[in-house]
Amino acid sequence: MKKPRHFILGVVKKGDDDVRITRAERYVVQGGTKETHDQAAEFVAEIDREYVKDPPQTDGERRLIIRDAARKTGLLDQKKR
Q1: pLDDT for position 78
Q2: Contact (Cβ atoms closer than 8 angstroms) between residue 72 and residue 46
Q3: 1-42 pLDDT per residue, tens
Q4: Cβ pair 44, 27 in contact under 8 A
Q5: Is residue 81 situated within a structural domain?
Q6: Three-class DSSP category at 16
Q7: CA distances from 27 to 7, 44, 64, 79, 80 (A)
Q8: What CA–CA distance (Å, rounded) separates 2 from 64?
Q9: Is residue 20 part of a domain?
Q10: Is residue 27 one of the residues assigned to a domain?
Q11: Rg of the Cα atoms in the chain
Q12: Which of 30, 33, 50 is nearest to 41 (CA)?
């Protein structure tokens, strides 16, 4: 049986005239201002680390990983659930 693989593509709409692209083995983040791009790249990198450490098997597990990554990177308020 083939091992599941993942690839994440992040596109940040808010931007300026600079071209920003962050590439890694399993993800690419493109666009954004310096601040929004860096934040999106860290968010995607956090998701990637979790997927590699313990690959999710269900949509519920995927949602938990995304929500936790959003909290860790400051995209989601720590108090909200």
Answers
A1: 62
A2: yes
A3: 666 678 898 889 988 889 999 999 999 999 999 999 999 999
A4: yes
A5: no
A6: coil
A7: 5, 7, 19, 28, 27
A8: 24
A9: yes
A10: yes
A11: 14
A12: 30
Straight-line distance from the first to the last Cα atom of the chain, in angstroms, rounded to the nearest whole number? 36
The total number of structural domains that make up the chain: 1
**Cβ(43)–Cβ(70) under 8 Å?**
yes
Joined tokens for residue 27: 């993800």
Integer Cα distance of 22 and 32 in angstroms: 11
CB 64 within 8 A of CB 53: no
Closest alpha carbon to 45 in 61, 65, 64:
65
- What predicted TM-score, i.e. pTM, was given to this entire model? 0.82
Query: Would you say residue 19 lies in a domain?
Result: yes
For residue 75, the one-letter residue type is L
What is the residue range of 16's domain? 8-72
Identity of residue 29: V
